[in-house]
Amino acid sequence: MPGTVLLIAASPLGRGRLVDAAGVLPVLAAVAPAVLSGTDTANVVELADPLEPQAVLTRLRAAAAAPGPLTVYLAGQLQLDRRQRLPHLALARTTAATVRYTALPWHWIREELRLRSAARTALVVDLHADPEAWGHVAERGLDCGPTTAVYGRVAPAAPGRRGSAEPSYMKAVATLLRSGHRPPLAELHERALARIPGSDTGRHLVLASAGGFAPGPPYRAAPPRPRTPDVPPFTGTPVQAPASSLPPVPSPSLPPAVPLPAVPAVPLPAVPAVPPRPAPGVPAPLPPVKEPHAAISAAVQAGRHAEADALAARHELTAARAHGPASEDALHWTEVRADLAMFAGDAARSCRAWMGVAGVRLAAGQAPDAPAVESAVDRAHHQWGRIEDAARAREIGPALAELRLRVPGRHDGALENVQRQLRQLQDR
Questions:
Q1: Threshold 0.85, pTM exceeds
Q2: Could you give the C-alpha distances from 272 to 181, 184, 285, in angstroms and in order?
């Protein structure tokens, strides 16, 4: 099955640029697509100094929806927005005052990849962080989600340095791959670290995880150079990456829901004999599914939507009884069921589920501008706009408008959009 590769190089234009991220793209583009992906064939999408966060989100979403393995090579810089103090990937128009509106929130990347399998999803990153973002990452690490393998480093801005730094880790990765062979990512990562110039190692955060929360302190510099000979230099003709087979998609006014995850079709494990009925109030035991997300995704891809929802519902009920309905464990499965309703074409059920998630989070004391709350309301809004039955849309609309009043989100005019559509529905 073909793989998908997304090459992203992003940094601000002008004095705010910490790293010349786009400088690594020619080296990466000279690597054969199959080597970049680690598959027999691959489609490559390249984004050089993108301007709009929605454009990056659209490309990321399309890549995440493609079947087969996905590898994202990302070079750029991190900055915090002034309002929520959350890390963002700075884009070409980003300044310190406009991070919230012109940069890509890091949690958008995590959300788009959250339903994929870590065995088939990888982030290779070379990031530089301004002092505020470095303080955040140094204290909390960089959350890439539990279903994404992540390798790379985050480096602080060099004090007193003039000009932009080089993405030396990513250039080392590209140089190694130009040999025509992609070793296991963990090995590629260590060899790339060993090639970083000594002046560029310093005190940086090394990311190396096969799936899960990226490590925090302590930090370590690049390991000593191995005594084994380096990979022979590339001597063949560079292979240009083919044009992307993913069609351009116009930027939506609101972030659409998470697309169908690209997870290999894996048969559901056999369910053992039905155990005796449990006592009232005790959840029934779950089937021994090692990878419930993979099993759910396989069911969705096979069109078994009811089966996928039933499995997610069992996990949701178990998590709610064990940790409470407002726990992150339970809400995760509620969000999965909201996505499953979207995959099944039931926009109304998906909308109600996302509204329920937002309501539970708000009732638990989460702020209206918390990323998880904003995301839930945005997704509910998007799904409401896809309800074809006017009567059902009219029924749900007032509750959505009330929720939008509390959670306006990042998109100007979101509440007015709901009110305008409600008026149009009343005229039908």
A1: no
A2: 43, 36, 11
